[in-house]
Amino acid sequence: MHERFAGRTLLAAVLAAGASALIWFSACTTTPEPGPVVEVAPEELPEEVGAKGADPVEVSIVVEAKPPPPPPEYHGVEYTAVTSALPGWTMESLPEEDPPVSRWTSGLGGEWIFAADSRAAHFRGVRVWLSWPAVFDGKSWLVSRPDVQSTLAPLSAAVVTDYFPTRQRTILLDPGHGGRDTGARNEDLDIMEKDLALDWAQRAGRLLEADGFAVVYTRYDDRFVSLEDRAALARRNAADLFISLHFNAAGNPDASGIESFVLTPARHPSTNSGGNGETGALPGNRLDDLNLLLGYQLQAAQLRRTGLNDRGLRRARFTVLRDLECPGVLLEGGFLSNRQEARLIATPGYRERLAEAVREGVLDYFRHLPEPPPETGR
Ligand SMILES: [Zn+2]
After folding, report:
1. Distance 333 CA to ligand 1 centre (A)
2. Could you report the per-residue pLDDT of 128-143, keeping only the tens digit for each?
3. 159 C-alpha vs ligand 1 centroid, how far in Å?
């Protein structure tokens, strides 16, 4: 009986009034809100405490259960230990990294890497942007609770399931820009994003059709299509996936690499905004988990096929993604503002590799779903 209490740090006080005694255990005297109160039978008292009661028969004891500590908070959101977010995973610290870096493995091929004070995490070798930085408090690694729910949990659950579609799937390919909207340009090479994106889409479409997919395009020639109409075409064609194809441009001519965007979850800041994430749920947020899995597989496939710099899987509230009723992603296949990459993008061979990446990413998406997709069309 005594041993039950030996390991605890409870403070005991005995209040005797007349023939009865109230014994109050408090885990923390400064706790503003006491935890649940538990009645304990007198015979469960530790002996030396019970012995102080005037009359054992009349003693009534109230034990205050230790309240759970409040969840840690950083950057204005609740955090949780990675050990709770990824139960059963094992951690190793990567030596001599500053700030510190930790690597977590599931034993089933899962791998997360977190860097302290950084939103850039890696899942199985692909950069995935968290909405809030990982934290190392000197003892434990922590991640924000919203990131666990929106990113760590769904990606960690994406194991190989091989649920290959038995119903024919419709893929909507959306070559960016068109007509009067040229998109990014490289004047030196005289190339425009709208032409290169269309070529990428047509190459990807041919490969997907050869694999048995039905392919629909938001445009198949050089014409202007509004952003709203592009999303509406996904609905009208009952598309199973929406894939928007773009090339990047930046003021910094050294900016380079591949990035993919999926819709920002509700109340999360977008990757490039530095915002506070106060936006509520949009229609496309019903598919947050599937958006993430699609974006992850397409980012991974593009990196494999091109070997370019990994700018990561990001979140944004792009108009074409906001109202989708199917999973959607926007791909950026390199920088037209970067001299070296623009030369690469100008070659048909590179755009064919990007097209193969789209086909591969789509197949990987269907092979890694956490549960079988519905087999009936909408
Ligand atoms: Zn674009």
Report:
1. 10
2. 999 999 999 999 999 9
3. 32
